[in-house]
Design brief:
Shape: elongated
Strand order of the largest sheet: 1-3
Distance between the termini: 23 Å
Structural class: mainly alpha
Order of helices and strands: HEEEHHEH
Strand content: 5-15%
Radius of gyration: 18 Å
Length: 110
Amino acid sequence: MKIIQDYLKYIKNNPEGYWFKRKLYGWGWTPATWQGWTLTTVFIILVVANAVQFELAGATTDQAWQFVVETFIMIGALILICYRTGEKPRWQWGIPKDEEIKSGREPESE
C-alpha cells in the first residue's frame, strides 16, 4: 500500500498544472487532472466507436485501411496533446529523486 500512497503523492504534486505526468515505470504519461482523464476517456470512446463502425460496415480491405489510418491519426493526436500538456517524457523507474526530496521522503541510497 505504500507504493500506492507514494504514487498518489507524486500525481498530486503538480504545481505546474500538467494534464499528464510521467509514468512512474517506463516511458509515457498518465492522466493527472480531470482534463487528462476526460481526454483519455474521449480517446477510448472514439477508438471503440471507430472499431464498431468498422465491424458494422463489413470487413473489406479498403475499410480495414481506413480503420487503421483513422486509429493512427487518433493515436498521433493523443500523443501530441500529451506532449504539449504534460511533463516532458523520459524513461523512469520509480519516483524520481527530486520528487522524493520535494515530498519529504528520504532519497534511497544506491
